[in-house]
Amino acid sequence: MGLFLQLICLFVVTAFSYSSVIPQLPKYVVKDAGDPVGVTCPQNISNAWLDIVIAIDISTNMGPSQVRQITLNLASELSKYVISQGQVGDPNHYTRVAIITYGSNATVLYDLAKINSNQMFQSAITSVVGSTSDGVSNITDAMTQAYNLIYDQQPCDEPFGCQKVARPPVLVLFAASVNGDTNSIYQTAQQIQQLGTIIPVNYNPTNTMLTSILNTIATPGMYFAKPWVAKDMDWALLQSNCFCTWWAGLQLVVMEPSTQRYTRYAECFNVWDLIGGSLNLNDTDVCGSSEVGYPAAINAQATSDFIKKMLKEEIPNQFYIGLHRQGHSPTGKWMWYTFGGNDMPMGTFNDWASDANPNAPVTCAEEKRQPGSTQQNPIYKWEPVSCELWDTGATNVICSLKACTSDNFCVTAIPSEFKSTKSRPRLPKNKQVGQLKGIKH
């Protein structure tokens, strides 16, 4: 089977999967164990490349004064982002903005292809005024219009052969009341969550029905109540700009107990099949390219928990990881790889098996299923091993690929540097390519 046909079997990233439960989370979420976790998502606002759909309740439930406050706050908040259609400056790192207002009905004032500068956005958003007579807040229609805008910008139904950019879509919904069929709100929220992020801002938190709905449809950790602050909005938007493409693997997401937020990390984990030959972790083809991927560094408890959850369905016996001897010397220090093929210290976290000998004169390490392990309760521990496949019988490696972030621009197609003949991502489960999009309204 050719490489192209093999790649057709890859899975579509879990963040795009359809579920009857909202909001959606990536498939595996772990709790923060208190030690430093993974590669953080960059906070570079000026490099963001988002599709932001703003929907503002302009009914009397919100009131003209609060509408004015919202528009002035948005004018200030989004002045930090490069708003463009790509006509000047960086051809990739820019953000597009659409504006919807809603009362009894929703109106698209500007779609995602209209506003072409920060100045135009400032003028457009500050021109929005609240109604003094319309007392209906039709969130259903607002979300339907938002979904249609987002859907129209998706690059293709099929991910292969598609070189267009899929900018991460974000719906920022300002709400003060709710009327109409709430079931439709949930259904449309599910479809939006297939493609992007929902950030609701509640301007009437004493309204229990509204609060319940907005909490339910929000992307986890991204529900805000009045008064919202710029740092929270920046965090939510830049988290939305940190994701794994369908081909890269599962994104590390950690629940932070101190903030009760689900924090995404800029790493995408997947199990890669090693096709043959010796495992040379200095070989950039092991995980595609050392600039964008490397054998996984399991240097925190949360990362270890995540990997074990990921492996639960794979039912493997052993997997190579990124732990290796410095300089590939049998007496070198144990180190992890990072992007670019560089070394970083092993750190304080370790997960050696009870009978493992870290002083063994070998230069690689693997996660190995331990006695008593079951599919429901998999037990994996590190063991030092040879780097030669025929010595260990291992045929897989856990790879960490760089997520798409504000600093790392991505397209939807598989990059040419991943056309390796030495390894390939593992065949996914329970996902069909045709589920990338929902049904357009």
Description:
- The chain is of the alpha/beta class.
- It has two domains: 3-40 and 248-436, Roll (Mannose-Binding Protein A, Chain A); 45-240, Rossmann fold.
- The chain is 21% helix and 22% strand.
- α6 links the parallel β6 (197-202) and β7 (224-225).
- It is elongated and about 80 Å long.
- Residues 421-441 are annotated as: Disordered.
- Residues 1-19 form the signal peptide.
- InterPro entries: C-type_lectin-like (IPR001304), C-type_lectin-like/link_sf (IPR016186), CTDL_fold (IPR016187), VWF_A (IPR002035), vWFA_dom_sf (IPR036465).
- Keywords: Signal.
The termini sit apart by 39 Å
Strand content: 15-25%
**CATH fold name of the largest domain, please?**
Mannose-Binding Protein A, Chain A
Largest sheet: 6 strands, mixed
Blueprint of the fold:
Elements (H helix, E strand, L loop, with lengths): L2 H6 L20 E3 L19 E7 L6 H14 L18 E7 L3 E5 L7 H9 L12 H14 L16 E7 L6 H14 L1 E6 L5 H10 L6 E2 L4 H11 L9 E7 L4 E14 L18 E3 L5 H11 L6 E8 L8 E4 L5 E3 L18 E6 L10 E6 L3 H4 L3 E7 L20 E3 L16
Parallel strand pairs: 1-8, 2-3, 2-5, 5-6, 6-7
Antiparallel strand pairs: 3-4, 8-9, 9-16, 9-17, 10-16, 11-12, 11-14, 12-13, 14-15
Helix pairs in contact: 2-3, 4-5
How would you concisely characterize the structure shown here?
This protein is of the alpha/beta class. It has helices spanning about 5-10, 65-75, 120-125, 140-150, 180-195, 210-215, 230-240, 300-310, 390, and strands at about 30, 50-55, 95-100, 105-110, 170-175, 195-200, 225, 250-255, 260-275, 295, 320-325, 335, 345, 365-370, 380-385, 395-400, 425.
